[in-house]
Amino acid sequence: MKLLNQVIIITGGTSGIGLEIVKRLSKTNEVIVLGRGEAKLAQLSADYGVKGYKVDLSDSNEVEWVASELLKRFPKVNVLINNAAVQFPAAFNSDDFNYDTIQSEITTNFTSVCSLCYLLLPALGRSGNNDISKSLILNINSGLALAPKRSSAVYCATKAALNSFSISLRYQLEHSNVSVMQALMPLVDTKMTQGRGTNKMTIVEAVDRLISGVEKGIEDNDIGKVGLLRWLNRLSPKMASKLMKTT
């Protein structure tokens, strides 16, 4: 799929990987960004001409509201990029763990994705054409979907769930006007990963590979070291688990 002259909705587009995607795609597409920061959305609009919607994806009522607003304004949508995610690395048995973050992590990282896919499916279906090109749901995932690490148990679980959801939804929509892809990211040098890990991939390279994967039609795009992790997981799940446990 060529990301050119498309109507594209992206969540979490005000920072990190999402922001880099917005910078690239807003030049030749109509981009709509969903984010929590009103000031950042306004700046994006001024800098790149995108349309911004302030929404908290951890609140299901706000997710329903924004989907309704989007359907009114954009009856046809070519691409939905589910990029937004939060991660709270504190362990369950630590003093830093906050009970409220469980709901926030699950709803933001997984429930909102399922909800937006469902609620925006009519608009995606209207823009796709089985004979020419399909519209696209692209879920930004993580290598942690394949093998979890010790910390961030809820985050790892949401990414594993997103992997399963993406594949199952792809099966369901196989004969429709909508295709489903996911990009499984390695450790990327973003604000979320500050102070954690080494040898991180740059945001620019990660987005290069993401866009290339979409244009090549790679359904499960294992970016960087994720390809090695998938291979190792098939060869020796025990070894992959041991490796990721202390990552």
UniProtKB/TrEMBL annotation:
Q: Which organism is it from?
A: Vibrio amylolyticus
Superkingdom classification of source: Bacteria
One GO molecular function term of this record is: oxidoreductase activity
Q: Which UniProt keywords apply?
A: Oxidoreductase
What Gene3D superfamilies does the entry give? NAD(P)-binding Rossmann-like Domain (3.40.50.720)
Name of the protein in question: SDR family NAD(P)-dependent oxidoreductase
Q: Name one GO cellular component term.
A: membrane
Pfam families listed in its UniProt record: adh_short
